[in-house]
Design goal:
Blueprint lengths: L5 H5 L2 E5 L6 H14 L3 E4 L4 H8 L5 E6 L8 H14 L3 E5 L2 H5 L3 H16 L4 E5 L7 H13 L4 E3 L11 H11 L4 E5 L5 H10 L3 E4 L2 H5 L9
Parallel strand pairs: 1-2, 1-8, 2-3, 3-4, 4-5, 5-6, 6-7, 7-8
Length: 228
Amino acid sequence: MCKYTLQEVASKVDHAVLKPNQTEDDVRENAAMCVERGVASMCVRPCDIKLAARLLKGSPVMASCVLSFPHGADTTATKVFQAKQAIADGVDEIDMVMNIGRFLSGNLDHVRNDIKAVVDAAHASGVAVKVIQESCFLTLEQVVKACELSLEAGADFVKTSTGFGPSSATPEIIDIMVKTVGGKMGIKASGGIRTWEQAVAYLEQGATRLGIGATPTVLDGGTAKSDY
């Protein structure tokens, strides 16, 4: 018997509305669904923050957004500007992509400082920051280090994936994240969650948030066809 109710699982979901071909009408339809289903947040592209924030106003559902998505390759100054613009537009949480190339180059000070700059800008307005590692490009040892850098930089969550990389969340990655920063940071399993069973399994492992694109299908016990 599942120890999570439907509403408990829904309340952990960041519903993703991030595909390049999604329209303003898609944002409106998804916002209504998010409010109806009681998810944690609707995660949108930066250009959709104002609309999402307006649609979700007065509901418990937060407006969240991606930043430097999906590669994390913007300069730090650009990321800070993006964060401040997102906050001005009404965002409640920011999912930033760490600089994957700099991390793999071993330039860890740059990665830490890049995250910290966004965190400082966001926290000044009470906005939480999740750091997307795009873990499919990392070894498990590198996942540990990326988690440690995010913690040192003051971020609120670590997150597995953009959903647009070659792979998504895995139980092995979530296990490493929980062992490294569990109890110190939130942990978001994101991408590739296509069934109720997968969603519950990640929560049972210790994930505290789930990034899902096909939220109604997953919550209703179906199998999502999309990659995100």
